[in-house]
Structure formats: C-alpha cells, structure tokens
Amino acid sequence: MKGKRVALLALFAAVLAAVAIEPAAAQSGADSTTEKLIWDLNNQLMYIAVPITVLVEAILFYTVWKFKNNESPLPTRENRRLEITWTVATAVILLFVGVASYQVLAEPYVTATGADAGVDTVAEDEEILDVQVTAQKYNWQFNYPEQGVTNANTLVLPTDRPVRLNVTSTDWLHAFHVPGMGLKTDAFPGQSNYLLTKPTDTGEYQLYCAEYCGVGHSQMLGTVEVRSQDEFQSWLAENGDSGGDTASGNETAGNETGALSP
Length: 262
Ligand SMILES: [Cu+2]
Known about the structure:
Blueprint: H1 2-26, H2 33-66, H3 80-105, E1 129-136, E2 139-144, E3 149-152, E4 154-158, E5 163-169, E6 174-178, E7 183-187, E8 193-197, E9 203-209, E10 221-227, H4 229-239
Parallel strand pairs: 1-5, 4-10
Antiparallel strand pairs: 1-2, 2-3, 5-8, 6-7, 6-9, 9-10
Helix pairs in contact: 1-2, 2-3
Copper (II) ion binds near residues 209, 212 and 213.
C-alpha cells in the first residue's frame, strides 16, 4: 500500500514539474528558425528528463526513509518482471530521444550539408540569400556575391528570408558562433561549411569566434544585424555596387563591436 502511495506521490510531483516547465516551453521567442528547432527539441527532452529525475529522487528518498532503522536490509535477488520493465522502459525512452534528436539534426536549418542546402526546404516563393563568410586573424568579412556588397565585422541580414552562409577561413581555424540565433560552425581554410537559417526577429546579435585562434581570439567579435526586408534593401542600395571589391567595405576592421554586451 505504501509503495502505491509513493508511486502516486511521484506521479503527482512529475505532473507538477511538467506544469512548472511549461512557461519555459511557451516562451518560444526564437530569433531564427534554427534556434526554434533547437529549443523545441530541448523542451521536448525536458518533458522526459524532469519526470524521470523527480521519480528517481522520490524513490531514493523513500528508500532512505523506509530502511533507516534496518540494520541488515536484504537486496532483491531476482525479479524478472522488474528487470524486463526497466529494460523496456529505458529502451523506449532512448528510442524517443534518438528519434526526436535525429529529426531535428536532419533539418537543413540545423545541419546544412552543402552549397545547395535549403533548395528542397524553402518555399517556392522564397529566395535564398547567399553570404560568403570569411574568417581571418582576427576579423570577419561578409561578402554578398549576388549583390556585390562586402562588409567587415557586421553581418546585415533581412528578417523572414532564408539565408545561406558559406563559412571559410583564409589562414587558420576559427569558428562562426552566434548563440542568440542558434548558429555555429567551424571555419577551415580551403573548406566550405554551410549554415542555413531564417532570421525571424529584428535585432542585434553578438558574433563570436569560438575556436581559439591566437592572441587576438578574444577580440575576434562581430555583430549580426537583422533588419526588416525594406531596411535591408536600402542598406544594400547604400553599400551596393562596390563591384564586389575587397575587404574594407564601409567599416574598417576593428574592435568597435567589442563593446556590445554578449
Ligand atoms: Cu578565434
């Protein structure tokens, strides 16, 4: 009878915990399609992890309390039903975690596999914006090949339009990391790593280099500015037709973005 009562209590606690994490799940204020997919998976896994944690803790406390005056407790020798139960339960949970994770990892907005990433994903009326991202000690260059625009250290993007970043490096290992938008990939010399995303909210996001690359690594910062489509178009017009010429763009490579809070 007591076991049943404890099981009920544990179930109640689990439901309570699930209700408590609901607000966290509800605030889906994601800033990109990529970030949303990652957070949704995180929340999904929390729905499993929190009840399991509560259940295990409840059993632990119950056991400690129940056997506190027992000098010679007897271990369970063999209980086939119990063994089958926990094996099957574990398998079901792992299967769920595996399938849920795989589904998200297979999304091009999370794992962009190549230069044609997103072709099958984006809607027919959507046009992918391509940006070449080049890392070098210790700054970032952003080149919009189709628009003939180049900018240093500030990546300007339109909202609600799919963007494909081709990330590479001229000299050394770096990594393009924008935590606020759920974006991260390595930058290798002579190799292209792709990121596909669609910004869903305007604002400024901090860009970090996330691979130690030398004495200037901690200063290798940048900004991602997400603007409305109209503002993006006028930014392009202002900075456009530079003939795609090199680096300096409209900003000198510097540390002015370093003052931004992370
Ligand atoms: Cu670095």
